[in-house]
Structure formats: structure tokens, C-alpha cells
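Recap from last week: sequence in, structure out.
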Amino acid sequence: MFDKEKRKKIKRKIILLIAPRLVWIFLWVLYISCKNRFYIHNDIKKSNAILTFWHGEFLMLPFLYRKMRKIPKIFVISSEHFDGELMVKLYGYFGFKTIRGSSSKGGRRVLIQAFEKLRNGYDTAITPDGPKGPYHSIADGVVAMAQKTNINIVVVHTIPSRFWELKTWDRFQIPKPFSTIKYYSMPSFKIDKEMNLDNAKELVYKKMTLKPEDIFNDT
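Predicted C-alpha cells:
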């Protein structure tokens, strides 16, 4: 048993050492090969924000944030699972920082750290349906962050014209080379402090399921 656990740890260390850099290179090759179109609402220029996005769309989002902010000033909430460790390494190559934890593990600590970063002018990024779903659900964390800090929420999307979809709970998308990828930073919105949790989550869901092309008149 000990040898098995030891081998597992060694294997993970090797993966952590190699995989994030390879993925970073792959993402840049993919980005360069694709036609990238950005639609960024001016709201994001007014102040820092709580960025929300579906878990299955996160792969190419660093390129959108690079267009939104010349200098990265963001903390991404990432799970404490092994895949979260991989994301921490990958985000680091883009200049992003992370807060480790989730609603099921270390949730209170994560929120306290997020409140602090938001009040100090940083953006935060969170997947309301992560890290384990259900698919396109809204967890409590994003509502708590918005109501406690009075910071605006900005929904972001990446929508490729052609992609591979993995058979995972989040229907994770990998754009195909030479496809067109549309990146959207939607108009911001607030959640009133007096709004109850269910209504607030419904509001977030409605905002996240708006069709971006309708907002930007993109045809």
C-alpha cells in the first residue's frame, strides 16, 4: 500500500512538472491557429468585478482576460483536488493568482479570502457550477461574494465554432484548430443585498444563459 501511494505521489509530481507547461504551449498554438473575435462590454473598465463562467468553457478564457486587463489583477478560485493543482500551475503562466478551495471543502475560508481580494481592487473568477456540478447549476458562493462586497458580476463566455466535447459532467469543450472562437465579456450586474438566496441564484442563472450575440448584435 505504501509503495502504491508513493508511486502515485511521484507520478503526480511529474505530471505537475510537465503537463501545465505543455498545456500552456498547446493553448497558444491553438489560439494562434484560430480566428479570435472579442466582444468586451465597457462595464469591465469601470471597476474590478466578479467574473463568472461555466466550468466547461474555462480553457481559453485566459486570452479573454488578457484583452480585458493589460496587467492581470485576478484571483481564480480553484479546487483543492489534483486537477485544481494543475490549474494553479497553468494559471500561473498567464500571470493569474489563485484561491484554493470550493463550496464543499474550505468554503468559508475561500469566501473570506475572496472578500478581501475584491475589497482590495482585484478581480475574482469563479465557476458557479464547479468543481463537480451539477452541469450549469449555481452554487451559493458567487451570490455571497456579490452581496457581501457590493461588487458587480460580469459573465464571460468562450464560444468556439467547432470543438471537441468531452464526456464529462461539465461537457468540457476543446476548440478545434482553425475554428473561430468568440470571446464575450457581458454587461455587469449587481445582486441587491436584500434579495433572498433563491432569487439571487435565479438572477445569476438568467444572466449566464443570455445569448451573447443578442447583447452585442453579433451575426
